[in-house]
Fold these 4 entries.
Entry 1:
Amino acid sequence: MGIMSEPFSGKRIKSGIPGFDDLIEGGFPDQSTILITGSTGTGKTTFVAQYIYKGAEEYGEPGVLVSLEERAKDIRREMEQFGWDLEKYEKQGLIAIVDGVSSISGIPSEEKFVLEDTLNVDNFLRYIYRVVKSINAKRLAIDSIPSIAFRLQNEGEIRKVLLKLNTILLEMGVTSLLTTEAPDPKGGKISKYGIEEYISRGVVLLDLQEKNIELKRYLLVRKMRGTKHSMRKYPFEITSRGVVVYPSGEIY
């Protein structure tokens, strides 16, 4: 077991992901920033959308989902396969989806929350702050960090932006999940820029591994400050009801 030094005695935020909270002492530490990292196709978007949706459905906690890779209407349609009616909770003011794609693509958007200026990081952060406050959000998900950082020229700029992002998130008082790419988790590189994990209180790695000539999904809690957690890999699946983790299942 990896026991971290900082004791965390505060509130836990339930993930809404069956089996996962058993691995992290009941949920994410309140008002923390957690990195969800993995290669393409590992389920990062589903993981963070489930966190926002279940927060509204099961716990009555408002949440903001910032989509920088897919249009809001595409997210809604994809999540319907799990029986999740995002629009229902949007109408109730429990979920806000920020469309950060349409304006980049030059496509007109009818969304309530549209990120017009993705070039200026300060404007981006101010806008997210306003949306969070407008629904009194307790949860926030940003999918994904590389979509914020890809226009930046060098590592120094990216580091500055990510530190600023983390400071603003902590000021908002939300529990945030941020997604990033893990280009080579087996080679030890678990985030695209090698910086993201240092601004996060926790790091959850999602990956695919070949076993018996088929790909299996596994999850590893790499870091969760103030939390006792296993350093083992646990199987998970994307089922008809979303992400399900098997904490007592086969470990491979």
Entry 2:
Amino acid sequence: MAPYLESVKSFADVPVTDAGVDTLAFLEAAQGVVGLFERSEGNITKVRARYDAFPDQSSTLELLVVNEKTEKKRTATEGLLWLLRGLAFTCKALQLAQANASEELAAAFSKSYEGTLKKFHNFVVKGIFSVAMKACPYRADFYAKLAADPAGGPSVSADKLSDDLNKWLAALDSIVKRMETFYEVGGHSKGF
């Protein structure tokens, strides 16, 4: 078996064309994040349900959102919006962790929260997140888990892990920024 990042679909492998971001490939890569943090599963389920119900109208994330816009309830659009926000938070935190090898994950995730999710949360949720940041795993434990082979084989080197993680994060960041722009320009986040 391979280390974690090699065992899940990478955001670097998600096809992005002029037409948009491939829905199924994006969901497969996002599912890999669930294995890391298990927080986004409900939103992935909402987007996947829309894709499964209307695959021809959902081949890209953009088409999925546009085709759901005429409906009274835009469950997948809202789920995708929150999934993207969560992914932006995770991506920024891991980018901060990558940029500062001496910083613990709790500090990187706290800084990321300030710049990503905090503006969308009320007072109560902000307090919950503040407490949750203290529950972040230690940096060394987290990176060891990412480098480890779940089947018990040898771990990848720190350099290989760092290279793989940087590629994964760059691709995720690109997709998230693209979709944030799409939501903003199209007014797709209104009402949530």
Entry 3:
Amino acid sequence: MNNLSTIVSFITDKTKRNAAKYGDRLPAHTKDGVYEFSENGFWTGGFWTGLNWLSYELTGDESFIRTARDSYPRLLKRLYDTPETLDHDIGFLYSLSFVADYKITGNPEALKVALDAADRLAERFNEKGQFIQAWNVWKQGDPFSEENRGRIIIDCMYNLPLLFWASEITGNQTYRQIAESHANTCMSTIIRSDFTAYHTFVFDPVTGEPKFGQTHQGYADESVWSRGQTWAIGGYTHAYRYTGNDAYLNVARNCAKVFLDKVEPDLIPLWDFSVPDPKTAKRDSSAAAIAAASLLELTKFVEGSERSAYETYANQVVQNLFEMYSTNHDETHEGLLIHGCGHHPAGKNIDCSLIYGDYYFVEAVARLLGKTKVYW
């Protein structure tokens, strides 16, 4: 097995080389081994900054702080000048940038931005339905887009820590109440009775009445999209960490059991566990990385053989990702992990590096080494 120090060197050396090329730009996914960028950060911009904050924690090299902050003007412009472009992924964008900055450096300017971001996320709360609206209406009159007025997605469970954190910092319980309400709503709708997860669930935006589940980025509405399953594991684990609500821990543990029961022998999941021909299906290295980071958080709250199972998975999957799904033998490839699967049904970002896959791989490594300040 590779020593974690070898993996850290791979991560930080490549990240430093990439930083010298990227300037203030925010990488999203690779094409032919080269990262393409999102102008305003899309939903993924925070992962590049978070990766650099983690690299600083892993090395103490302050150049990573400068790199993390280089992209701030883009995120600030988005928050203050074009807030209409923001959706529920405000948590992903600002937790791993400005919240991380405040946690690590005590930067008061970062604190202000992070709390302003939490306000924008809280404003998306639908009181009738007790949920945070996920996506905006992308195209007026388009039926799917119009349903976004009442849509939640499982990914939002990983955005809630921004609200929980804001409540702890300010003492304002409204943030926490909104986060708990959304988690409760997800628990009764988007989480199925067998502890698999829909990708999305639609409500009537006016009455708040639950309508139906959809799996937009998975194989089919009733299928088990592997990355969605990992968002559920980590999202409910973090919700438990902030609240102590045993119902959230129960969801996290059962969603973890589903994932571990279904994952492939090399521990890297198919992009969707329900595909009809697993032998030819694409893998999703990003889902493996998110699972590793999420299960390492979950180990804090369980004991015995259950904890050992999570630790074993996380340790082994980090090794497998490095040995079989990384670019550790290719200095020209800008990504850390290959074979990520972004949006299979749309044919977008398939079999490439994904910045969130890279981030969670680094988070899992950092967790194994006890470096913990950045996390949600």
Entry 4:
Amino acid sequence: MLIRDKIQRNEEITLIKGAALSKNTKGRAKMEELEDIRTPYMIDRDRIVHSKSFRRLKHKTQVYIKTSGDHYRTRLTHTLEVSQISKTIGKGIGLNEDLIEAIALGHDLGHVAFAHNGEEVLNELLPGGFKHNEQSIRVLKYLEKNGKGLNLTEEVLDGILKHSGFSNSSKVNRAITLEGQVVKYSDKIAYVNHDIDDSIRAGLLRIKDIPEELINILGKTHGERINTLVNDCVYNTLDNIDKGILEVSLSKDIGHALAQLRKFMFQKIYLGSILKEEREKAKFVLHNVYDYYMKHIEEMPHIYKNIVEKEGKERGVTDYIAGMSDDYCLVLFNKIYVPKFVIY
């Protein structure tokens, strides 16, 4: 018996009825031969980890654009925290951890430099708008491997596409697998809490600033809040399944508390006055780099010039800009616009 068969047999024995079994995958856009050891979801996870876009996450900002500290989150460390939280929830429920891990590791590959400020800029400039979850799919299907894409399974792509938003109330935005739904909640659990942690470290937020009623429900410390939310997600989802409802969710009170905590962070930190000046600087840089390449298509890498020919200038330049790390974007801005010493 092949090792892959043993792994898939173990999935049938250990996972709950509503879990996504790798042997039942809807497959890939391009059919591939099965491997002896790895299941399709294991292959997808490994392809994402070894991709260039995954490695670039280490230099993409989560919230704070430029820091001198080593302990502030980046888009990469956020991704790893989402993966850890979602695998814990998935294991507690009895779901496919390989599928969960693949979705979690790939969910933010389409994020732009300079946190959500970059997404706002490209959303203004690209006809039809720009969303990082949709860009993640473009990265995985059309941009990785010099335009060949990674040819991932439908379940992984669906979970990545539908990780945005705050609830599963709309079936249109709900992942087709419970594993994908787990990642959606884990993303919010991770970023709301680790952004609080980073904000306190930066001296921009104090624990006493957080509404007391939310602290009383979710917990005072970072670990307490994560534990409350993870436990609630596991037990509430198991309760849903016992009732015949195949849906991942938080309980009403805990879900409301997390939503209010997220709202507080948007008002105080994400869109607050504290970081307004740095947000505007980041947008200025991106606007000008975008404008430059709209006028100098010939200077972009070959893959993006091909996209310009097939899908237009705005799409090609957007794909190029969206893939940049914060540091690379700043290097290009300085190269393009900052005067150099030519006489010594």
